[in-house]
């Protein structure tokens, strides 16, 4: 079930009404049924994978709880890791590794005949697997007590607002909330609805419109060069942000309407002034997951220089691989590793340049240049993330600045991008609007500022956003990008 | 909470009102359905469907007139609603005619050109030319749908009937001989002009064998029945093709295949008691513009000013005959 569907428009109000009509002790059951139904709307049998993962981690958690020492708990953690990562590997990575091995063997004229694993990638498998893994690791570390209530634990794994695309919640945050009795609170409901509206606007109006151009160009990049490739890449940067942060906003808003608080997943990532800051602002629930469960256990900052480099490379490699079983994602992750390492190693280099050009005397300009530099690097990496193959990505990178003099706005150029000039300008205006909102957020909490505005203005904004969603969306079917991960 | 529910109700009403006002100015219906509907609402004497072969204006054209405009010059006593559009399809015309009859628009004549090239999967199965949304609109069209069409479209309930993979994997034939998939003819070298590719492009577009049960033929038959029941005469004609170029590359086989295909269509219409006006071979090579048009590297039916005027002149006689026959028939009953 998609958030931007009639199905969800009917499903959610029913769940909401039943949730508050239901006695507190049965609410977990209602939410669990709703969550499984939500998932089964896509492919019913794959709910068994979630149940298997749930039961495995539930029992491993209980068994770990009985062991007083870490050493005693380790074997159960290993079973949990093998089980969860095994599911992930089989459904997501087996064919990738199999094909890579096949290509390698063929290259050396060796026989290789392991058949492909023919199954659909279960939606959200990377998200709920990482969520349950975080639970097992926290129990292993002794940071939390194992959850005794199997139903509540199952709900933690399958909670429908964040089941298929996050945020990847920590058990410390979410599990206790399922025990809390939620009351109807008009202020919280309005706040949740505001987030849903904004998230829907970003996904349906901005991301899906930009996707038309991105899909056209990246679908066959060899027909394009220069300005078209630049536009498509810039559009993709905003598409993926609006798509994913839009989904997160809807997920957080939906939970908020029912009284649950999910973690913030995005914080104006394109306003970051460095790559390290970008990763503190982009997909926060995943980057903190990798920080806590991969980077720090590997040694983190408190290790030798060479081992630190290894930690960074491993973390970004796994982050790339998490996004998809394709070399394009791995290259994307490695590019970010290179950026990150270069940034830390040559921290004073940009400062020296700014000093040389005396830009350091104008802090605002310095900030803008840092933001633009970071954004440029991130966009370059997005080329590898979005391209269908490495050779497509290499072509795009090579021809990015070729034929820039060719007009793209008038004549056939715009048609070749799959949109009219009018649609192109609407997309640009929408991006300006979104960045304007982000700019306001720099100076304070926009929702607090917004709540202080007169009612007519707030209603005008609600009306504007709703009418845009109803009328300005793209007519093509554009699924949430992060569903595939 | 009551206050919130009340606010939500008021908000819903406001949204409905705004949406109503928006669709009055910008109807929320697919572009091509909007265009056809506007033409139908003109209550013209003739409805002239068709593809770009009817309206295409070559950059060197001075006046930008369509065949419909030239026809009006020759038959000034009749008004003509030109409902042609790029890549027109018979199933879309059928849906539009159903809508036309349902909404009580009764023209004196419906003119439908048949492009032989439209039977080729390159056109027939093109994902952009399936018009699922347009057909949905014509089937269910109303002011309520006007208001809700765009919001409902977010849900993607109107799924495309063909995916781009279906299209690219469609098989192409020369007669009964398989010559490749669509994707072999739309990418790479076919994007630029060469003599060899032109020959293959003609093969893929014109040399197929149209089966008697082709869905386009079935749609034609359905149109005949529908219009007959509504007492509206219809004129089907085969659009002129650049047969000289076809013969240049495929010699007699080209004419032979075209004649056979026309015969298949003719026979199917005859079964429904309808005649086919055939002007496929009536124009000279110089009356087609595709060779000079930088937008095209394959043979098509786009006409120059003299070409469009020529077609209009050819259509006058069968139109007058159709109208006379209809008058006679009405007198009889």
Structure explained in plain terms:
The complex is a heterodimer of chains A (485) and B (333). Chain A has 485 residues and is mainly alpha-helical. Chain A is 71% helix and 0% strand. Chain A is built from 20 helices and no strands. Chain A is globular and about 65 Å long. Chain B is 53% helix and 9% strand. Classes of the chains: A mainly alpha (485), B alpha/beta (333).
- Roughly what percent helix of chain A? over 70%
User: Which of globular, elongated, flat, extended, rod-shaped describes the shape of chain A?
Assistant: globular
Largest sheet of chain A: none
Kindly state the mean pLDDT of chain A as a whole number? 86
The total of beta strands of chain B comes to 7
Tally of DSSP helical segments of chain B:
14
Identify low-pLDDT runs of chain A: none
Give me the Rg of chain B, rounded. 22 Å
Please tell me how large the radius of gyration of chain A is. Answer: 24 Å
- Tell me the series of helices and strands of chain A, N- to C-terminal: HHHHHHHHHHHHHHHHHHHH
How many strands in all of chain A?
0
* Quaternary organization: heterodimer
Largest interface summary: A-B, 23 and 26 residues
Beta-strand level of the residues of chain B, as a percent range? 5-15%
Biggest sheet features of chain B: 5 strands, parallel
Strand numbers in spatial order across the main sheet of chain B? 2-1-3-6-7
State the helical fraction of chain B: 40-55%
Distinct helical segment count of chain A:
20
Distance between the termini of chain A: 16 Å
Which consecutive residue ranges of chain B, at least 5 long each, have pLDDT under 50? Answer: none
Termini separation of chain B: 69 Å
């Amino acid at each position: 079930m998609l958030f931007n569907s009639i199905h969800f428009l009917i499903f959610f109000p029913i769940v909401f009404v039943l949730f508050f009509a239901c006695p507190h002790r049965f609410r977990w059951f209602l939410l669990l049924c709703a969550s499984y139904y939500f998932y089964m709307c896509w492919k019913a049998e794959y709910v068994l994978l979630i149940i298997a993962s749930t039961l495995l981690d539930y029992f491993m958690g209980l068994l770990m709880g009985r062991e007083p020492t870490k050493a005693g708990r380790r074997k159960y953690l290993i079973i949990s890791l093998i089980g969860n990562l095994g599911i992930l590997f089989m459904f997501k990575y087996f064919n990738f590794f199999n094909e890579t091995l096949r290509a390698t063997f063929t290259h050396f004229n060796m026989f290789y005949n392991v058949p492909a694993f023919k199954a659909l990638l279960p939606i959200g498998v990377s998200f709920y697997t990482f969520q349950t893994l975080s639970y097992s690791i926290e129990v292993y570390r002794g940071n939390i007590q194992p959850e005794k209530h199997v139903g509540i634990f199952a709900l933690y794994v399958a909670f429908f607002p964040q089941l298929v695309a996050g945020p990847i919640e920590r058990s410390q945050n979410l599990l206790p909330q399922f025990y809390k009795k939620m009351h109807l609170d008009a202020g919280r409901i309005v706040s949740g609805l505001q987030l849903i509206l904004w998230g829907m606007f970003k996904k349906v109006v901005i991301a899906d419109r930009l996707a038309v151009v991105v899909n056209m160009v990246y679908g066959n990049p060899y027909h394009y060069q220069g300005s078209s490739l630049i536009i498509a890449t810039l559009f993709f940067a905003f598409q993926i942000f609006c798509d994913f942060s839009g989904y997160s906003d809807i997920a957080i808003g939906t939970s908020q309407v029912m009284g649950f608080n999910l973690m913030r997943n995005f914080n104006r990532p394109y306003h970051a002034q460095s790559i390290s800051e970008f990763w503190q602002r982009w997909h926060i629930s995943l980057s903190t997951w990798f920080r806590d469960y991969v980077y720090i256990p590997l040694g983190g900052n408190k290790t030798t220089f060479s081992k630190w480099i290894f930690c960074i490379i491993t973390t970004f490699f796994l982050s790339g691989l998490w996004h998809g079983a394709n070399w394009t994602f791995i290259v994307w992750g490695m590019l970010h590793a290179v950026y990150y390492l270069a940034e830390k190693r040559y921290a004073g280099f940009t400062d020296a340049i700014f000093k040389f050009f005396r830009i350091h005397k104008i802090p605002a300009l310095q900030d803008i240049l840092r933001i633009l530099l970071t954004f440029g690097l991130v966009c370059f990496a997005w080329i590898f993330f979005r391209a269908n193959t490495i050779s497509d990505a290499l072509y795009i990178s090579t021809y990015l600045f070729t034929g820039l003099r060719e007009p793209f706005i008038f004549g056939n150029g715009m048609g070749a991008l799959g949109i009219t000039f009018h649609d192109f300008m609407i997309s640009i205006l929408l991006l300006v609007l979104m960045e304007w909102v982000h700019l306001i957020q720099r100076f304070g909490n926009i929702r607090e500022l917004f709540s202080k505005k007169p009612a007519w203005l707030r209603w005008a904004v609600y009306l504007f956003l709703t009418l845009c969603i109803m009328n300005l969306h793209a007519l093509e079917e554009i699924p949430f990008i992060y569903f595939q991960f | 909470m009551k206050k919130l529910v009340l606010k939500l109700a008021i908000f819903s009403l406001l949204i409905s009102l705004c949406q109503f006002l928006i669709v009055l100015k910008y109807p929320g219906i697919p572009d091509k359905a909007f265009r056809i509907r506007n033409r139908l609402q003109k209550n013209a004497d003739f409805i002239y469907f068709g593809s770009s072969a009817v309206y295409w204006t070559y950059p060197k054209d001075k006046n930008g007139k369509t065949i419909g405009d030239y026809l009006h010059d020759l038959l000034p006593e009749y008004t003509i609603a030109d409902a042609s559009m790029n890549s027109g399809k018979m199933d879309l015309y059928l849906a539009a005619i159903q809508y036309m009859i349902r909404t009580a628009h009764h023209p004196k004549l419906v003119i439908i050109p048949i492009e032989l090239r439209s039977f080729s999967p390159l056109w027939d199965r093109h994902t952009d030319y399936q018009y699922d949304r347009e057909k949905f609109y014509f089937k269910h069209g109303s002011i309520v749908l006007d208001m809700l069409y765009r919001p409902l479209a977010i849900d993607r309930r109107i799924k495309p009937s063909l995916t781009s993979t279906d299209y690219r994997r469609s098989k192409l034939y020369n007669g009964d001989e398989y010559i490749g998939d669509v994707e072999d003819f739309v990418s790479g070298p076919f994007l630029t002009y060469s003599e060899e590719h032109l020959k293959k492009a003609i093969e893929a577009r014109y040399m197929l064998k149209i089966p008697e049960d082709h869905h386009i033929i079935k749609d034609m038959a359905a149109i005949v029945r529908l219009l007959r029941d509504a007492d509206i005469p219809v004129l089907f004609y085969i659009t002129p093709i650049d047969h000289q170029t076809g013969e240049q590359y495929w010699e007699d086989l080209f004419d032979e295949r075209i004649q056979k295909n026309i015969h298949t269509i003719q026979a199917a219409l005859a079964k429904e008691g309808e005649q086919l006006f055939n002007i496929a071979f009536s124009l000279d090579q110089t009356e087609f513009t595709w060779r000079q048009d930088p937008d095209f590297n394959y043979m098509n039916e786009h006409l120059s000013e003299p070409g469009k005027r020529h077609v209009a002149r050819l259509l006058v006689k069968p139109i007058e005959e159709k109208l006379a026959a209809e008058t006679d028939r009405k007198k009889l009953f």
